[in-house]
Amino acid sequence: MGIGAGLFLIALGAIFAFAITVDLQGINLQAVGWILMFVGVVGILISVFYWGPRKRATTANRERIYTDDPTQPPPPL
Fold this sequence. Notes:
Shape: rod-shaped
Radius of gyration: 25 Å
Structural class: mainly alpha
Number of helices: 2
Number of strands: 0
Strand content: under 5%
């Protein structure tokens, strides 16, 4: 789950918890909303602290290696 999915779950949970006033038998939409918000926050935290450093480490240490001398003109054809 990425940051976007976590934000989506938080927004959907907030809608269920605070905006919907429908009473369904057997389903408490406020509890479902709070659960969705909690899962969204946990997903964002996992995405930032666990997956974030791994993604940055692979792209930060690139080094350009030249096989030819870049200051010399190309050979004639």
